[in-house]
Amino acid sequence: MQVHYTESKREDAESSIERPKNIDKPRAFTVWRKSSMGFQGTDGFSVYDDSGRLAFRVDNYSRRQKYLTKEIVLMDGAGKPLLCLRPRIMSLRDRWNAYEVTECRKKQPNSKLFSMRRYSMLQNVDKAEVSLAKLEDDNKAKLVPGFRTEGCFEKRSCKIYNCNGEEVAQISRKTTSNASVLLGNDVFSLVIRPGFDSKLVMAFVIVLDRIR
Questions:
Q1: pLDDT in the model for residue 24
Q2: Confidence of residue 139 (pLDDT cuts 50, 70, 90)
Q3: What pLDDT is recorded for position 18?
Q4: Residue 12: pLDDT band by 50, 70, 90 thresholds?
Q5: Other C-beta atoms lying within 10 Å of the C-beta of residue 41
Q6: What share of the chain is helix, strand, coil (3-state, %, to 5)?
Q7: Which of 13, 19, 57, 193 has its CB 3.0 to 4.6 Å from that of 132, i.e. a possible disulfide?
Q8: Chain centroid to CA 17
Q9: Rounded distance, CA 187 to CA 150, Å?
Q10: What angle do CA 190, 179, 55 make, to 5 degrees?
Q11: What angle do CA 14, 18, 21 make, to 5 degrees?
């Protein structure tokens, strides 16, 4: 999905997507599946850009059953909340919904940004699909096809495509600087193509980690 600005306020999922400042080349991130404020028995994410700066983070959350997970908040490197992810408890395909931070303050948020779920109910199927919320003429939100994943996230070998078949991002194993040592699965590479929102892609990665 290409990202464009308009002068008027966008009232669908795209309203939260910021156009990247450097859109002429892919952006490379190193994702560490560990909170920068880690505590034993919890998980999180620390995401660094190619300059070594902390770009995104997810602080501690439990990997217990999803019905015990209220929400997961994606923040920027300084700790500013960007969006929140909530599991849909009664879902055979591990559906997660994404909301603006202001919506998450409500007990029953009603304006989701996107919904992501496993492609199939079969547990051994690695594909996932993303539907974006789009406001219709009757002022009601409708979910429309947005993105899909191919490959195996658990093996850190997968790609994300938009609904037009364009490659959005690639997830791969990380090696040391001299490429002599292949690092473990807790550290991996995320490369995002020009014109796509890194915040949105990172949210997809978090959900992939939860539904695998």
A1: 79
A2: low
A3: 45
A4: very low
A5: 9
A6: 10, 40, 50
A7: 13
A8: 12
A9: 20
A10: 30
A11: 150
Phi, psi torsion values for 67, nearest 5 degrees: -70, -10
Residue owning tokens 């008027």: 8
Whole-angstrom distance, CA of residue 19 vs CA of residue 184? 32
Supply angle C-alpha 159, 142, 201, rounded to 5.
25
- Is the CB of residue 113 less than 8 Å from the CB of residue 100? yes
Token pair for 29: 């991130």
Which distant-in-sequence residues (6+ apart) come within 8 Å of 70 by Cβ?
86
Q: Return the higher-pLDDT residue of 178 and 134.
A: 134
The pLDDT of 102-114, averaged and rounded, is 76
In one-letter notation, the amino acid at residue 143 is L
16: tokens are 């939260």
Over residues 37-55, mean pLDDT? 81
* For the ranges 34-48, 68-82, 87-101, 102-116, the one whose mean pLDDT is highest: 68-82
Q: In this structure, which amino acid lies at residue 167? A: E
